[in-house]
Amino acid sequence: MTLDILTDLNPSPRLLLGPGPSAVHPRVLRAMSTPLLGYMDPEFLKLMDETVALLRHTFQTANTLTLPVSGTGMAGMETVLANLLAPGEKLLVCSAGYFANRQEEVARRHGIEVVRVDKPWGRPFSAAEFEAAVQQHRPKVAALVHAETSTGAVQPLEGFGDIAHRHGALLLIDTVTSLGGVPLKIDEWGVDAAYSGTQKCLGCPPGLAPVTISDRARAAIQARPTPPDAWYFDLELLYKYWGPDRAYHHTVSGTLVYALREGLRLVAEEGLENRWTRHAANADYFCQGLAELDLTPYIEPAHRLPSLITVRVPNGVDEAAVRAKLRDIYNLEIGAGIGSLKGQVWRVGLMGYSSRRENLTLLLGALREILK
What we know:
alpha/beta; Aspartate Aminotransferase, domain 1; Aspartate Aminotransferase, domain 2; three-stranded antiparallel β-sheet
């Protein structure tokens, strides 16, 4: 063992403006220092109930089956797919980015039949295109990414639940980069299942994946011929712990529950409408600053995600060198492009506690210095 690993923990004070994680709110950090309780302690069970109630508020849903799954946003994706669909059942993936393709990859590993319809990355599906795909393929579940982290595009969803239900399908959406940052109305839009992550717009550390399931989707889960093949992510077993039965399933991280409860309290205190407005206003401010630097967002304004802006890399610019200078000189982190956008864009996260005007002013000034 070398002595360098015995030194004090002292990471650099990075300003996190990448695709995730985002900055953790100071109140959330303080909550995480709270002493632990046992996972069956009555006081902890009360905190669990409060966390679920706050989650329902943030998702804008009355769904009984709403809870945080232990794991990151990918755990949420795998949980929902493995519960809603048995091997051999059909999933329709509407793909316009990296994380829609990830839905396909995860589903196939569970033996689910996948049909994928594609659009160019960053181009949302219209209601007519969605209905044509559902009508043609007749899936049990139709999946869309509400906020595509790879492209910075937001997918309109009004009316999509009605379309799916009209053709006998359930509507599943990825809200990892939208929950708590952009308008999201699970019940009003007829969404049957959604998953998210805590490390984006909620201003919490990674480690929990909020999930919500409609009564219609829950009935489909309960009607499965066999239990889900992922025991750890079995939603009915998880609900027996998070719900009134209080049956032990696994030892949840009390520290992360404290963090999520405090992050959701902050959402409720600010107000969802105010929070959505703040993210939109800061995105507009940032894009105006980009224009002054002759930089262009990748996504057109009508479908631009306020919580994550993709910026086109100018011709002749070494995008990795720019990110390295931002990190090493200014202690700023932004993200690189992934998939088909690798080397073409920077991904700038304006999420949760990171979405503050002073942060964006600093980033714009740093880019001006580097690029000039």
